[in-house]
# Entry
Amino acid sequence: MNWSDSNHSDNVAIPLRLVVNGGSLPDFDLTAIRNEQVAQCSKLAVLHLPCMALAAVAIIADNVAKQPIWLLACYATVVIGALALRFFFQEKRRAGWIYGSPWFAPSEFLLGGVTALVIAAPLLWFAAQGDSQAVSNGWIILVAMMTVYGFGSAPIPILFCSIMVLVGLISASSLGLTGNWPGAVSALLFTGVSICAILHVGRDSIRFAIMRHKANERGETVSLLLREFEDASADWLWQVDPNRRVVRASPRFAHAAGMEPDAIEGVGFLQLLAGEQWDKGKMDPALHEVANHLNRRESFAGKFVPFNREDGQRWWEISASPYLDATGKFAGFRGVGSDVTAQRAAAERISHLARFDGLTGLPNRVYLNETIAGALEQAVTWRRRCAFMMIDLDRFKTVNDTLGHPIGDRLLAQVAARLNQMCDENVISGRLGGDEFGIVIRAIESIEAVERLGNRIIEYLSRPYDIDQHTMHVGASLGYAIGPSDSTTVEALTRNADLAMYRAKSNGGGCISGYEPSLHDQASERREIEIELRSALAKNEFQLVYQPVVFSNGTVDGFEALLRWNNNKLGNVSPVRFIPVAEDTRLIGPIGEWVLQTACREAANWPESAKVAVNVSAEQLSSPSFVGTVVKALSHSGLAPSRLELEVTESVFLREVSGAMATLDQIRALGVKLVLDDFGTGYSSLGYLRMGQFSTIKVDRSFVQGVLAGVRESIAIIRAVVALADSLEMSTTAEGVESQEEADAIIALGCKKLQGYHFGRPMPAEDARAILSPAIKQGKSRVA
# Structure
């Protein structure tokens, strides 16, 4: 027989010794349960002695005509004595009865055995006399007695077993002695079944008592926790009846509502939350959702609802579950709530920081992407068009580098303010990062309207900015893409607008450019050039060619070193295509270093009167190591510094005035000559000539062509440049001379040196040395 039960809810195993003789469990104190069982048996003890006495009386009555009176009288006397003895010990031990003590089971078995022997002994006498009827009747009487006795002994099975064992054995023996073997077997079976049944009842009694005690403990724990929760937590408990009216309002709940507990009692819960809006028939959507849960009598958790208190709107987080009364009928809702106004404000602040730029207050990239997505969706749904603009500030780096980042940040804030003034519900501006801004136009009338807005933005952003007595001028380059015609996704539309903006900057900045599919091809080509350019030096794909620069009398003054790139995949790539890529990807540094070293080594083989000119980009001048690169090229080649000319364009000064001038000063201190290239092409300033102390000014070929065509402006500009150079003790070089007529016209205007196809195309180093070879013998050099 398995005397343990591991399948009930509390998983408590009840061993046999615990049922028979008490004992204890390792994780549960049974003292209280034992006391309850003893008290229960004490109440049922009134059944024990009377049922025994009635059994003895029934046996006497059944045999009064068969047995001598004296024998029956003696039997009655012994029974009375045994019952009196049992009553005596029961009363004596009632107060100190310890169920489970070591002596309890033996003493109970001894006392029960004596009682059983006295009650059942007549059956043996009847059997000895061969009176089978008396034995059978006696057994029936004892069965009835033990049934009643077992009912009163169920909480403590040992009380029943101590008597039932001996009664069963005596009855079975008596029935057997009279030849009633079926009756004897039945008596033994009944005894065994009764003992097993009472033990199982005892086990269940203990188990149920344990479960009840644990449930009570849990209830007390929950009550204690709820009391502690109410006392120590910032949250509160709330309860409503089936009509959704507040009941049992706790002081903390009333305090959160700004009311007294009596005033809040009986008020409709939704009415309490809605406040004045309740009378207007308006409720927040969150309250409607809570109302639906209440109507459907279903649990809900973590609902954020507004609460309009007299001192302002608050936000509560509430959870609740329906509960039933003792009859199983729906009794309302019980829940918990907390004031999360501060937490919600903090969350909204975090959300704002995550979606808005901290410096300018404009929406950030995340917000703009969401806005673009919404605009595209609406455009597709309503069959209209939207647009996205990308704006990049021109010359902003100069402000940061010359005036510092704090001034640059304040400039960005003013740019944002100007953009914000041009926005409305249909036009949303934001900052993408750095000096890049974006504008979403949810619905556009036409492409022309987009370009008009773009031009207004460029014009407005290009106006002067005054910050801390500094007047700054920055421009803007703008590119746009139209959705959904140019793209139906946020990523693609943004990329297309970026490509258009890049083209606007490539066109000189300060202009607007729309997206065209060909820009993808240009971007792909640019990407391919970048990939191949990164390995061009290692593959020895670069080559220098040299174009002569001559004096007006035809004598060679030197050569300008020009870079060429022949790639196995791309073929001959024009410098116009790969130099901007090299500058943007910062590959111009190592490439420029190679050009300097190669040109200086070649020029070291020329006559001492021949110079070599090398073009230098703004990216190279911005590098702190550039001066060291020049020194290294001169020292390794042995070329005299006065024979090296570095050509720079005016754009250098627009990007980084102080840095460029500091680098040029160090180069000039080495003895290297400086040449201002492409003078007059758009950024000319006499201040650059004064600051740079150039040795030569190169006049752009567009003016040379204008002279031969008789353009008065070109003739006037060249005359002015020549006069300016003479006054500053500088030389002038005219670029792009392609005919003798152009050469004669330029010489007539006073230019001292000329360069162009008329005097020689860019040539390999061997051809340049061949031109210079007569000078080695004759002491002079002329173009053949």
In short: Confidence is low (pLDDT under 50) at residues 1-10, 776-784. The longest strand covers residues 312-324. Residues 697 and 732 are 5 Å apart (CA to CA).
